[in-house]
Amino acid sequence: MLRSAAVIGVYTLLSRILGFVRDLLIAATLGAGPIADAFFVAFRLPNLFRRLFAEGAFNAAFAPLFAEALTKDGAPAAKRVAEDALAFAVLAALVFTGIVELLMPLLVMALAPGFLDNPEQFQRTVEMARITFPYLALMTLTALGGAVLNGVGRFWAAAAAPILLNLIAITAMLAFVDIGKTPGHTLAAAVAIAGVAQLLMIVIIAKRAGYDLHLRWPRLTPGVKRLGKLMGPGVLAAGATQINIVVGAQLASLLAAGAISHLYYADRVYQLPLGVIGVGLGVALLPKLSREAQSGDQKSANASLARAVELSLWLTLPAAAAAMAIPGTLVTALFERGAFTPADGVATAAALMAYAAGLPAFVLTKTLAPAFFARADTKTPARAAGASVVLNIVLGLSLMWSLGHVGLALATTLAAWMQVTWLGASLIRRGWWTLEAASALRTAKLIVAAGAMAAALIYGSGPVLQFAAGDMGRLSATLGLCIIAGLLYLILAHMLGAARLDAALKEFRGRS
Description:
Layout: H1 2-30, H2 34-73, H3 75-102, H4 104-111, H5 119-132, H6 134-151, H7 156-160, H8 162-175, H9 183-208, H10 222-252, H11 259-294, H12 298-325, H13 327-335, H14 342-356, H15 359-373, H16 379-403, H17 405-430, H18 437-466, H19 470-496, H20 501-509
Helix pairs in contact: 1-8, 1-11, 2-3, 2-5, 2-6, 2-9, 2-10, 2-11, 3-6, 4-5, 5-9, 6-9, 8-9, 10-11, 10-15, 10-16, 10-17, 11-12, 11-14, 11-15, 12-14, 12-15, 12-18, 13-14, 13-19, 14-17, 15-17, 16-17, 18-19
């Protein structure tokens, strides 16, 4: 599991680094103004549904069904399950995309109600959203192919596919930015093109792996019925964090111009560790837990989950501590250039600090949810997610008028902690997760190590950045500072006995 998570994490890290390059170019070109706000709403729309349906609910429902067929009946039966799911996915994606394209003004109205006061801004957003939305249909099919490959242990392909999105967006910004009606329209077209490229990549890799899926006429087979039944609550269960972020953007549209962009840029920073750690572990864990649950090996399933939780905290706590300790330094180094002003940096850093406080919860949600999905239980995570969304809305409406966009980020964080508490309590009550005193002690030691690292960052950031000249100098100095701080954290965790580096290396290499 650790090796699989590492493979996913490496490709995700590469994708996120390229994503930062993409966002640097967007920030320098669009800043945090009206066109940027319009594009981020248009981009968020297919991304929301992709994470809810394609990579979220569909993957959560499909993985245990595919694992069951593969474990009990072999590869041919698993391939039939995948082909039945493909027919269902193609039909659903085409119908849903067509309906949304027709109703796009209503969806933009729901996502950004504040834009109604500016007809030009509203129309611009609708145009961009209609260009980006076919990305959802393409990514639904890409997610199915990726889930099949994950189920047979080929994790790298699905993790590497998003690299194409960032490369195509970067190319659009560097070479074709003036071709579209606005730079935002150019970026929207790049998103749709990237969807085609990602699907082609997954199709080719799946074919080489022996899963050349053929498109059948949709049939309401027992497997498809089970898939649909599991997907219903899985939509909410797998996508609560994304729903909460979208709710924040909706409410931010009621605030001053730039609020949506400030939340977006802050979201991009904390999404790096969330994607590398949370998604990596969650994706690697789900097929493993599914196989163990299907074979009735409850002891191994419990041990796998416990190990995944420890790994999540070991890797997430230093990232959260760093983002809370030096948010301004991170945002300045990453984004403050061109149209992105120092005032934008201050506003984005404040949102980043609020999001960072919830980073362990965001990651743990990705780690704990597969324990339910592996047992074909999407209802319990859905209830927790539903409560999280309601709490986020209540807190967002309460805090936004006094704290602005920072209040919206804080509401998302508090809702995430409530959700992970619900999931953890449910797992413990069912006997699917056992909390041990030794594990709690190791976690406490990790918190101490992360706190010491944060203090070192606060103390060292000023002197280090004083000698950094220019944009690349600040970026290089910040990167070097974070690497040194990370090494300090690892050394402290090792000395305190919270995480033995030698044991981790042995586990990574597959040794006992």
